[in-house]
Amino acid sequence: MSNAFYFIVCALIWGTTWFAINFQINIVHPAYSVGLRFFIAALILGAIALVKRYPLAFSWRYHRSFIAGGLFLYALDYTMLYAAQQHIVSALLTLMSSSVVYFNVILRKVILGKPMRLEVVIGATLGFIGIAAIFLPELKVMEQQGYILVGILFALGSFTSASVGNILSEKVLETVPVVSFNFYTMLYGSLFIATSLWLTQTPLIWPEASSFYIALLYLSMFGSVVAFGCYMKLIQQIGSDKAAYVVLVYPLVALLVSTLFENYQWSVLSALGVLLVLTGNACAMGKFPIQRWFSSFTFNQ
């Protein structure tokens, strides 16, 4: 399947998971929600791997990478993300999530030695400005209420961890199938979370609301198995820097869902923000000859 297909599916699903997560916030401890989500996803991926005969036997060298991926991509990233969503408004969280693209560009250079692609940096900057324009009204309200430092620290920790996990994934996925990689990383991630909950003796009270379990299944099957499968294929095929632009696009999907079900009111500023995000996406994916433009500019000077 094409990269465009993987990108669209990933953006569509993750654009709706924000709403599903709301049915789990303040219901149980965030770590339980994350651990259950990825353990269920790992069971599904394990079944798929057995049926489709994906390789599951790997050396300890690969398992070290799987363990690191599980820690950064799922255990740390999502536990801190759920915690951040309890403390700060979604507008700020969405804006801060765009930092993943910049982290990926920098760490990809530092860790993998791969060049910083100018079109990705410019595209990410356009996307960042666009997201800021879309959520500016909510950000203004938040300024009146004051910043919540704990939530911001959780969010920064989450996105930094996600970026490290993305870079590690790009290296490992050169030789490991996506299904096998996701199975082990989600399994190890859920085991990390289970261990931390056991060590801290954090109590679990099973919710009575059916909405919690419906959201859990949706997040496990679609938000994890399908969406992360598509995202890892993108990392495998176009690199972690370009793949991360999904983070800037899926808030637009969330905006459309909000328009349909929450009566979101559009403005000229929000429409301009959407245009900037889409233009940035086209730029990051190489639809504009950015390198040639800048080379011509430098030469003419």
Describe this structure in words.
The model is unreliable at 296-301 (pLDDT under 50). 80% of the residues lie in helices and 0% in strands. The protein has one domain. It is an all-alpha fold and 301 residues long. It has helices at 3-22, 30-52, 60-85, 90-97, 99-112, 118-134, 136-145, 149-172, 178-199, 210-238, 240-243, 246-261, 268-284, 290-300. The protein is built from 14 helices and no strands.
Which overall shape is indicated by the principal axes computed on the Cα atoms? globular
> How is the main sheet built?
none
User: What's the number of helices?
Assistant: 14
* Average pLDDT, all residues: 85
Question: Brief overview, please?
Answer:
The chain is mostly helical and 301 residues long. 80% of the residues lie in helices and 0% in strands.
Could you give the topology of this structure?
Blueprint: H1 3-22, H2 30-52, H3 60-85, H4 90-97, H5 99-112, H6 118-134, H7 136-145, H8 149-172, H9 178-199, H10 210-238, H11 240-243, H12 246-261, H13 268-284, H14 290-300
Helix pairs in contact: 1-10, 1-12, 2-3, 2-9, 2-10, 3-8, 3-9, 5-6, 5-8, 6-13
Please tag this protein with its features:
disordered C terminus; mainly alpha; globular; 301 residues; 14 helices
